[in-house]
Amino acid sequence: MQALPLGGRDVHPIKWKAKYGGLDVSEARRLKALEDENAQLKKLLAESMLNEAALRDLLGKKW
Known about the structure:
By secondary structure, the chain is mainly alpha-helical. The chain has 2 helices and 2 strands, in the order ββαα. Strands 1-2 form a two-stranded antiparallel sheet. The longest helix has 35 residues, at 25-59. The relative contact order is 0.07.
């Protein structure tokens, strides 16, 4: 069986079933939305941490 594109990603049906098999459509959508939000928040946190590190370097490690 060939993997199908889903939301810009290739997802193998067996992996999809293992992850979403017990959920109805609305629950699966909610889980996907939460995962997307979590990924976005992790990215923002990483960017913030990089900015903080850069500022500390510019200020001369007095902190």
